[in-house]
């Protein structure tokens, strides 16, 4: 039995060759695919976006919301979308932003000198272009909504979104280059935008679409470029007598594959972990194995077995193909393509030495504004997990170029807190604050050159799993984020007024706007929570996004097919789910076996998501204007994307409190006639 009054399908005014349902699925799949491809591709060519992936996501949300709000205000097809996409691709390829490799110093965790336009030029261009590019597919999706009952249209929209995620995930697995993404985008534009009249179609659709595919094809055949699920990886042989390869990711110098003997001669930090361990390590775990130099060094130091953990399959592949010592071909080496923290939590092995070997990802987890791939590796809980994986007399060590002295002190304090005694701290070079931090299971298991003086005054406390922001010194939102987010919201307000007309058009759907805000906060909490529990790999991330959409689709199907409780009851279930998620600690979930952990995590994370979308489905089905109400909800999601930066101050767990307050506000704004909706 259906639980709402379904709006009667309207007569289609469309002359499209494709029926409304397959057209809606195709347009929705294309919309999500294009969003993911833009986030992935722009970050590979503009280094600023390696640290601001949320910037493109927010622009996409704005464009999708505007696309829905534009429905009914014009009968013209959104020919502007392929034109804007072609311009964006051309500009990014013509003016990429990379790190100046000739600059003195070493980059690991920050940027030095950039080559290309400054951030204040590139970021606004990318934001506006992403919004306009996504606005077209969203408008095509929105035009299908009036032709179907509310929840049926939403159902097909979700099926299309899942299809888009599935296609992009499959291409990531195959390491497909950008030409594949561009070709898919071109085909979708050609299929979805009707060729009437012919002249604008060829000039504004076919030509820009083919230009996008052509430009990305040219980029894809660039010598020495590989596309991993995380980066655009480039490499070249350096002009030395010995075989040395320089490896960069997203235009940032990242690693060098060189003989172990040469590396040990050049930089002393690579030998110090073995010198500081009291007993010669035989079984070694290396997190951040990369192209294999650290693995080759461990073998040269007498290791009888090396477990090499590397999150990026392409970096591991390059190590196997290019490294002159061929460490990955050694039978003593076992490779694990996974997240370092996840490996520590899931393995039962014990090691003589655990080494964090420059594990700096230089990129963020998609869908999380401030979480980097390695963020959960440097928390106090992570170092404790490493301690638990050491044999009696074993040692833990990490080294890198930390850039700031307080970072060295913070990490040393984290190790001290986890191990219960002072570690060895060797500042190898003050240039870039190159340092090695080593601690034995006991003080007797380490041999320090000198006692560490302790952290300087003002050193921040160790980063916890709830706020894994190692590089954030103060408990605040940096000014650059506040200014940027303020400008985004201002531009969004103006854009909504220009595209959609007076704000009063959306006033009846203020509660749906807040539902969008709350949903994005819940999605962020899910992404970051599953990253902690199962790893920050692209596979986990894709599964979480797909799982969220499946939970939403399940809510829609339940609402369509069964009698569900009134909205006030569902709001109660939603708040109860938030309380449950708040009460269940991550530490308890991490202590569970992996299968049981998965069941518990899915239940805790997806219960409030399911309840929230039953609320949305019931309210959306009763709305008078499908496209305006849906557009208001999507714009709310964009605001939620801005609000997730609150985690920098309050932590990810407290986002549940913010979401709860947002949902209470949505309930307060619910039109009274809908409160008892069944």
Automatic annotation (TrEMBL):
Key words of the record: Membrane, Polyamine biosynthesis, Transmembrane, Transmembrane helix
InterPro entries: SAM-dependent_MTases_sf
Keyword Transmembrane helix tagged: yes
Regions that span the bilayer: 24-43, 49-72, 79-99, 119-141, 201-227, 479-500, 538-557, 569-590, 596-616, 652-670
One GO BP annotation of this record: polyamine biosynthetic process
A Pfam match: Spermine_synth
Name of this protein: Spermidine synthase
Organism encoding this protein: Nonomuraea endophytica
Lineage start: Bacteria, Bacillati, Actinomycetota, Actinomycetes, Streptosporangiales
